[in-house]
Amino acid sequence: MSSDQLWNWTSPVWLVVAVLSIGYLRLAHGRNRAQLASFLFGLSALAFAFVSPVGVLSDGYLFSAHMVQHLVLLLVVPLCILLGLPREQSERWFQNARLNRVGRILAIASIGWICGVGAMWFWHVPTLCSTAAQEPILGFARDFSLVAAGLAFWWPIYAPASRYRLDPLRGIAYLFSACLGCTLLGIYITFAPISVCPVFANPVDRIGILNALYDAGLTPGIDQHIGGLMMWVPPCVLYVGAITSLLCRWYSDIEPETRIRKDYVEPRGASI
Amino acid sequence: MSTEVATPYEPVAVDSTTGLLSWVSTVDHKRVGILYILLAVFFLLVGGVEAVLIRTQLAIPNNTFLSPEVFNQLFTMHGTTMVFLVGMPFFTGFSNYLVPLMIGAKDVAFPRLNAMSFWMLPFGAFLLYFSFFTGAAPNAGWFSYAPLSTKPYSLGPGIDYWIVGLVVMGVGSIAGAINIVATVLCMRAPGMSLQRVPLFVWIMLMQAMLIVVTIPPLNSALALLSVDRWLEAAFFEPVRGGSVLLWQHFFWIFGHPEVYVFALPAFAMVSEVIPVFSRKPIYGYAFVAGSSTIILLLSYSVWAHHMFAVGLGTSANIFFSAMTMLIALPTGVKIFNWTATMWGGSIRFTTSMLFAIAFLIQFVIGGLTGVMFAAVPIDWQMTDTYFVVAHFHYVLIGGVVFAIFAATYYWFPKMTGRMLDEKLGKWQFWLWLVGFNGTFMVQHFLGAMGMPRRVYTYADNPGWALLNGISSASVLFMVAGTLVLIWNIVSSLRHGQVAGNNPWDGFTLEWATTSPPPETNFDKLPEIKSRRPVWDQQHPDLADWKFAKTPADSGSRPDRAKVCAWAFVISEAVFFVLLLVTYVVFNSQATGDGPTAESALDVRRTGIFSLFLLASSLTFFFSEWCLRTSRRGAFLFWLATTILLGITFLCGQGWEYYGLIANDVTIDRNLFASTFFTVTGFHGLHVTAGLIALAIMFTLGRQNHLTQEHAKPYGAIGVYWHFVDVVWILVFSIIYLGVFQS
């Protein structure tokens, strides 16, 4: 298999990346370096999901590659976009009554939760999963809906304006229950004796790489196995990371510093 | 969320404060806590004797001191006893005693439930140990792996006693844990925000939450095993289509978080002991608290590292290996916190502190060998050898038991009003240090040399006799240390130095009251403005709140009945999810063997009866509304309608069962029938339990005992009733509509 076949340099995703980059650079005033880096990383991840072998293989070859693409679109890209928005500018944007209403609706935890976890479950109903992999229009709808659902999911945790965010303890419950949601789906996909997405069980060998994949050990059974584990473990690690950040938020600025007692004498002699 | 601070129920009046009856009938959290601890001490001795017998048998090669059968019974009972009758009661006891004191409460949230939780334990223990009198104590290991534990391979009643005993004790554990959760969330004194609770309280809250979700998978597994054994189903019999790996999955989904159910309280104890004896606040409170939360979350995704050798596939092994290494991080971070707390402190080497320091070192050894096992190839080499035995005893004795000893020396003065003798304490410490390390360190080498575990004897291979001899002889040091401890406790109770309120210059609220505390715990509470209120009170110049602010207490406490109901519902949800997973595992593919959901079930008829159940949620909601607005007649009407709708649903289920059984579709017919009857049967039991609760409410309502002020507890029953409906929606979708069917 030639490595050229595995890259799709002409993917239309570049257009989306270009539009978003220009929009961000022109509109997002007051951004700091970390925010810029986060946004650019999100766009790189978006491009990666379609241009790299992940994008090519997820197009009807490997369920596990599809799973990686799914997770990047649902969890990584929206997270990076939200973290990339400058706080003060966002506050100004969301003073607009309409945007504020959208922000408030998205701040309802159950909506975000259903969007995030629901998108994971919904697109893995066997017929939908297969059809979306075969029909470009449905495939586009799926990819778009994943990013949108991801934005809704992360909104109550990392909304750029803090008034939309859940308080940290509720946020932890939100993320932990989401983790359970994807764990259950992951367990089902990993251990299911049936093909969850039948199109990957009998791939159409468009670019002649199927034998190479099978020779590498990526047979449909093992492929689904890895896909299920991808659904299960990396999102949970990401959620645990986010929970850690919420714990930091909860405890932040209140950590007592170790005080030096009044009668404490600095030891003399050895110095490091 | 209510805004007012919850006040405890009035203390229950007990006729006498001394004598046996006062202890049996007590609902005081301190006495219940001490009962837990005494039970744990008793079974520590029982489990210890079992361990001594095991090591005596293994002291020399080819020994015939014990028969293989008795050896199997002993190691099974040793493991089960130490986990369920020593570890859990010790921690629940300390938690019961200390949590209300530390948060400035008069008692736990539900004192009567607390007493019930405790008495389940001796009852379960009696059932477990009664098996010895039947001549067939359980002998399949504390994990009771299938198919060894199924009827064809374990004909005697031992496993049955094991199942029933564990279910009874599990119910008690869950109820006790729910109580702790409700106590911490709802009963904190004014000023005690959740960011200010002592680390002991926070970590015990995490542990209680973990118990709430950890025991149900065991109960699911036990339910399936009992259906296999008593009703001849075949969940775990491969010959009839069952899966032995399913037992391992379910058992370790319980079993691995259970390790943290043990480790977290040990962390909690040393997090109190080390700062006090270093005379410094804990270094990095947020790290210790936060990492405990992370452990709680991660502990659920590492169970399969117990199953690396069963053939889950390389990809699964790699993922679980990575997750296992990941969970070492939040555990490891605490070691740095405790070490940094000691760094620069003025350390007092009391017996308690010595045990805490030994805990640190030995737990690191146990933790490091744990990380070794996370590497799949090392696991394959070492699994089922004495290296594993050494590893988990370093965690459970070197870590957990040493922390319990540290806690005993630290809090004994508070519980009894007398100090334990320090000289005898140090004797015990050194005897245990030598005995423990002598017994288990050499087992690492034995494991590396290939000595298998769970064997009643071994051949005289080079070096094995010497190392086993050292291991067995060292046990004597631990026995001697234990005798010293018992002597210390007995003599200190009689002649020990009087402790006073705060003998260690401790920081937290339990030291603000007398030793032992009065029945209602406090006459007066110090002002709570930081994490160390007693330190602030005694050292006003150096008060914590002057130097570092902690978030002020908002004063809002959730309603305890709602917290209790939700915790219970979450626990039950885990139980049902695993039963439904079982259904999906066995029914997602048609096997063409016997009845299936399509061929045996009448979807339309059950759908209609389901509507009755769903409607009952609505009528319950109306009844709740009427109770809140004090409309008694309407309340009774809607409640009676709810009960009738529930009964109608059960009649529908009965009709369906009758039809199935008449057509020879019985629980032992095939895996569809087994899973169907198990899932719907347990749901039916839950509906029945809900109906009984509603009937009690109806009777109370008719007698005018249920008024507007009881709306919250009534609402808590509603949470359960709605939950039963939600479960039915899932059951109906999965079983009747076949959502997961191919």
Key terms:
heterodimer; A: 272 residues; mainly alpha; 12 helices; 68% helix; 0% strand; globular; disordered C terminus; B: 742 residues; disordered N terminus
Concise account of the structure shown:
The complex is a heterodimer of chains A (272) and B (742). With 272 residues, chain A is an all-alpha fold. Chain A has helices at residues 13-27, 33-51, 53-57, 63-84, 87-93, 97-106, 109-122, 126-134, 136-158, 168-191, 210-215, 220-251.
Give an overview of the whole structure:
The complex is a heterodimer of chains A (272) and B (742). Chain A is 68% helix and 0% strand. Chain A has 272 residues and is mainly alpha-helical. Chain A is globular, with a radius of gyration of 22 Å. Chain A starts with 12 loop residues before the first helix and ends in a 21-residue tail after the last helix. Mean pLDDT of chain A is 85; it is low at 255-262 and 264-272. Chain B is mostly helical and 742 residues long. Chain B is 68% helix and 0% strand. Chain B has helices at residues 20-24, 29-58, 68-102, 111-130, 158-186, 199-231, 244-278, 285-298, 314-342, 351-374, 376-382, 386-416, 422-448, 464-495, 533-538, 544-547, 560-587, 597-600, 603-628, 632-662, 671-702, 711-736. The radius of gyration of chain B is 27 Å and the shape is globular. Mean pLDDT of chain B is 92; it is low at 1-6. Chain A binds chain B through residues 126, 169, 172, 176, 179, 183-184, 187-188, 190-195, 222, 225-226, 229, 232-233, 236-237, 239-240, 243-244, 247-248, 250-251, 254-259, 261-262, and chain B through 194-195, 280-281, 283-286, 289-290, 293-294, 297-298, 300-301, 313, 315-316, 319, 322-323, 326, 344, 530-531, 541-542, 544, 547-551, 577, 581, 584-585, 588-589, 740, 742.
Mind sketching the topology for me?
The complex is a heterodimer of chains A (272) and B (742).
Chain A: H1 13-27, H2 33-51, H3 53-57, H4 63-84, H5 87-93, H6 97-106, H7 109-122, H8 126-134, H9 136-158, H10 168-191, H11 210-215, H12 220-251
Helix pairs in contact in A: 1-2, 2-4, 4-9, 4-12, 7-9, 7-10, 8-9, 10-12
Chain B: H1 20-24, H2 29-58, H3 68-102, H4 111-130, H5 158-186, H6 199-231, H7 244-278, H8 285-298, H9 314-342, H10 351-374, H11 376-382, H12 386-416, H13 422-448, H14 464-495, H15 533-538, H16 544-547, H17 560-587, H18 597-600, H19 603-628, H20 632-662, H21 671-702, H22 711-736
